[in-house]
Structure formats: C-alpha cells, structure tokens
Amino acid sequence: SLAHLTTGAEVRAADRAHVFHSWSAQDAISPLPVAGAEGSYFWDYDGQRYLDFSSQLVFTNIGHQHPRVVAAVQEQAGRLCTIAPSFAVDVRAEAARLIAARTPGDLDKIFFTNGGTEAVEHAVRMAKIATGRPKVLAGYRSYHGATSGSIHLTGEPRRWGADTGMSGAVHFFAPYLYRSPFHAVDEAQECERALAHLAEVIAYEGPGTLAALIIEPVIGSAGVHVPPDGYLAGVRELCDRHGIVLIFDEVMVGFGRTGAWFASDHWGVAPDLLTFAKGVNSGYVPLGGVAIGERIGSVFAERPYPGGLTYSGHPLACAAAVATMSAMADEGVVENAARVGADVLGPELAALAERHPVVGEVRGMGAFWALELVRDRETREPLVPYAAAGAAAAPMGKIAAACTSRGLWPIAAGNRLHLAPPCNVADAEVKEGLAVLDEALSVGDGLI
Ligand code: PLP
User: Which SUPFAM superfamilies match (predicted)?
Assistant: First the structure.
C-alpha cells in the first residue's frame, strides 16, 4: 500500500532514501514530488499546477492521461499483460503496421525496443553488419542516448563523463547559422558549407571505414536546430555516394513534434533506418524501435539478426502505441502542432524576442521551440558558457525558476530554454505559458 506516502514531504523523503537519479550528484538533488497530471498540466502535493512545456522529456505528445490510451493499456492488461517477443501477437502486429504506414520511404519492418538508446544501438549494429565497416558519423550538436554505443555518438557535453576514447564515433558540425562554424551569412551558404565540411570529414576518415551517419532531422536536446532546405537531401546524397547507411534519429522529433508525423517529412528525405521512441505512445509504457528499409532488411532475410530484447514489442507498450497513433489521427494532433507552431508559438515568441534583449535567437517549428539566451545581442555572447555547471549556470537557473515559480515548466538546456508543449496543446494554454515566459524573460533582461 502507498498509504504512508500521502504528502509531498513523505514522497520526497522516500525517493531520497532509495531512488538513484539519472545524470545527478545524488546528494545535490531535491526532486519535485508529483501528485498527478492531466492534459497539458501536472501538479504537486501542495496544489501548485504546472503547465507542462517540457512534455516531460519531450515525450507526452498527446499530453498526460489521455483517456483512450489509458483505456487501451487497461484493456490490454486485462487481456494479455505480457508475452515473449518470439510469438505473433495482434497488438504488436498492429502497432508495427501503424508505424510502418507513417514512416517515410520503404521503412516497412519494425524492430521494437524499450526506448531510444536501444533503438540507436540496434540501428548502428545493423548498419555495421550490413556494411562490414567500423565507424559511425554523428553531429557534435546531438543527443543519441546514454548506453555504451549511443553515448559516444551523442555530441553534447553529457558524453564527456562516459567517453572511453575508443568508440568509433566520428563527429562533424551540422548547420547552425546563428553561430556558424563556417562563417556563413545565410541559410543557403550555411547549407552548402556544412555539406562541404561533411564531405571533407568523410574523405579524411576514409569512406570505406564509415558504416553509418546518424542525425536528428531536427536536432532536439542539443538546441532545436531546424536544418536549412537542402541539407538533409545533401546528406542523403553523400551517404549514397559512399555506401554509408543513413540513420535518422527521430526519437525526439518523430510522432508529431514538429508538425509532421516525422521531422524528415518536411524535406521529403527518407533514411535507410529510422529510430523512434517517446511520442510513439507518448511514453505511457516504455517503447522504442528501429524502422527498417529494404537495403538493411534484406541483409537479415536469410541470415539471423544477432540481437534481441526480452521485452521487444511488449503488449502493454504496443497497446499504448496503437491507441496513441489512432487518437492522434482522429483528433488531428499532428495538424494542431503544425498550426500552433505557425500561428501562435512562432509569431508570439518572435514578438517576445523583440521586447527582451536577453533573447538572441528564436528557432523551431510545430510544438518544438528554443530561445537562445545571450548577454549581448551584438556579440551573441551566450548567457552562460558552453557546458556551464554550478555557479556559472546560475543565470539559467534563475530564469527557469522564474518560470516554475509562476507555474510554467520549460526545459533549460545550456543557454537555452526549450519549449515543447504537448502536440495537442490548446491555444489558451500556449498563451498562458507565453505570459509567464514574458515575465521570466524580464528577469533574464535584468541579469545582463
Ligand atoms: N535519441 C534522441 C534524439 C533522443 O532525444 C533521445 C532521448 O532524449 C534518445 C535517443 C535516447 O532515448 P532514451 O532516453 O529513451 O534511451
């Protein structure tokens, strides 16, 4: 029974007694006790509600406690809670069919995992076996997961603490016009120079040593970077020229986040493998996977795939996925994300940026945006330095606290605020969040 855990203080104390938290110095944290959640809000035990502009870790694309998904999980639990992956099961087959129907190109077979990092590990394994090559290209501004392979592909600072220095990951710079590594002056030039840089990295690494290139079509955790038109097509072309398997990591941006089922749909470019998780079932039960096209699928038609997971395609997770995708389609959730981005978040964030000197750049699409915060708009000096921690990161902590104390829960990452409400967020909720953000940015203006 949970009868002894009825107050926030009790829940926090119980958490601190035995729960070991991700990414944290265990003695330095004090997690917020959450009592419940619904739609775009969650709340604590003291009656404080938070408008969830994080979608947790950018996964509750249809919000909290969607009744159709909750009912589907309950119904499946009553029917068949679990079964090993080697059996054929209706709900798993249906989840795979619905995913395959939405993924781009010829991605038609689905290997299920329990989350994003496993999807990345398996996609990379498939590419290495298919090509017989040892190395994998990934962006410096990327997050691909935190297990032994994916943490090395991850480019952002969370890699450092686990880097063994012997990984076979090779990093490159993807486009980022605001801080162009290529001194470009517009998106077209940034695109052209980023592709020239990538071509050079491939040449110097040796194309025959490169199994795969993995990229988030819209870069998520590392900054919400929307690629210039032509970039993904150029990457596809380089991969084709050199026999490199192209992996799109759509773990964060798939399933509606950018206002399309997959972010890569915006540019009409299809990969050889696509990794997904999070939004596939809004995280109600852990699920991820790899969508596999013919080029890689055919490799394992007659030869066994060397990999598997006890819970691959777990019935509860698949039931949640079927219900999520169906609800998203019936309720126009992807269209809502596109509309909210184009009509509300995009213009209103641009207006906020005009008023607040602490905002250097606004970027994003759909229900996925970032505000890059600066000390000085002219020099573009970041509000906090790259990989700042402790006291150096304090200004970001103050701005985040100005949001949370007023009931808005954004994501603070580096010198950025990421704003990722559920894809079915209502306009009134967006406006409520933007009003809080306006006040929090005034706090930020006072820090520069
Ligand atoms: N790939 C991307 C693009 C992600 O954003 C994430 C998680 O944020 C992962 C992979 C790892 O997923 P998981 O945390 O489910 O292992």
Answer: PLP-dependent transferases
